Amino acid sequence: MNSRRPLPGQRRRQAVPFILAVALAITVSFSPSGLAFTGKELLPIRQIATFGGKEGKARLRQPSAVAVGRGGKVFILDGTVNRVAVFSPDGRFLYDFGTEYLNMPLGMSLDSKDHVYVTDTRNGRIQVFSSKGDHLRQISLPKGKGGGATRPVDIAIDNKRRLAYVVDNRNHRVLILDLRKNRIIKTVGKMGMDEGEFRWPFSVAVSKQGVVYVVDVINTTVRTIHPDENWAFGFNIGKWGIQKGELFRPKGIAIDAKGNIFVSDSFLGVVQMFDPKGHFLSVLSDKEGKIHRFTTPARLYIDGKGRLYVVEMFANRINLFEISR
């Protein structure tokens, strides 16, 4: 991989290796309004619901992840207050859980039984709950090279293979967890800029084919890992920049039923879509044909109806959109 030059007048900054700091966009001196897309590259969306009230338990404080369970229940990881908040499909708060087990959690995923897997980030482990909030078990994670602390920031589950992929942000790696045995069976990645290496990865998603997509934040790309090839690294999606198909501070990722890949950029405030081979397709827009601007889009999720959930961390909300096809 070629090294990327900083913008004029800017020096490359080293990311702060702390759990929430990695979600912050690095401040630069240009305006993202210079993004240029043609009309054919705009994909209209329509907002249909918002999760996160202004007061009480419906209020969210820097949410970092979202997932949808059976019956349409919406599970939101409200990590600053160490809980999972559960909402009805129309946005009503129902209940919450996890406060006695979690310490600054950042990532979450549901399995086929609606068990809720949460990265207990500051404690360096995984906590598992039932959909009703009952604590089921705790999964320990191995320390990094030299005994360094593990910082799990996201998790994605491959139900077919009964595997979970855990992003260890501090140690620049992905841990592969066998859910049948509740133990790590392989570790991939290390710190660096070359193929097979990460710099502060943040989000992970798994396609129906089992391909693993990891958002490599400071390398400004999405890396792919292929389980049928002994988890070898494959093609990358995106490169450093602020134009179409380029990424400045990628954070969230989601994959639709057709294998299209949605990637959010927390600084530019946009969500772009790529085809299954990683080629740029479009950017999400409003009905007036303007690029839709999100507030620090941290993570993404696509439900069984093909609708897109966008976690706007510093706006303290999750917005649900219908995508025009």
Q: How would you sum up this structure, described in words?
A:
- The model is unreliable at 1-31 (pLDDT under 50).
- The protein contains no helices and 26 strands.
- 0% of the residues lie in helices and 43% in strands.
- The strands form 6 sheets. It has an 8-stranded mixed beta sheet, with no helix packed on it. Strands 2-3-4-5 form a 4-stranded antiparallel beta sheet, with no helix packed on it. A 4-stranded antiparallel beta sheet has the order 6-7-8-9, with no helix packed on it.
- It is mainly β and 325 residues long.
- Strand 6 and strand 7 (116-120) form a beta hairpin.
In short:
This protein has 325 residues and is mostly beta strands.
List the helices and strands and how they pair.
Layout: E1 42-51, E2 65-68, E3 74-78, E4 83-87, E5 93-97, E6 108-110, E7 116-120, E8 125-129, E9 135-140, E10 152-158, E11 163-168, E12 173-178, E13 183-188, E14 201-206, E15 212-216, E16 221-226, E17 232-237, E18 239-240, E19 246-247, E20 250-255, E21 261-265, E22 270-274, E23 280-285, E24 297-302, E25 308-312, E26 317-323
Parallel strand pairs: 1-23, 18-19
Antiparallel strand pairs: 1-26, 2-3, 3-4, 4-5, 6-7, 7-8, 8-9, 10-11, 11-12, 12-13, 14-15, 15-16, 16-17, 20-21, 21-22, 22-23, 24-25, 25-26
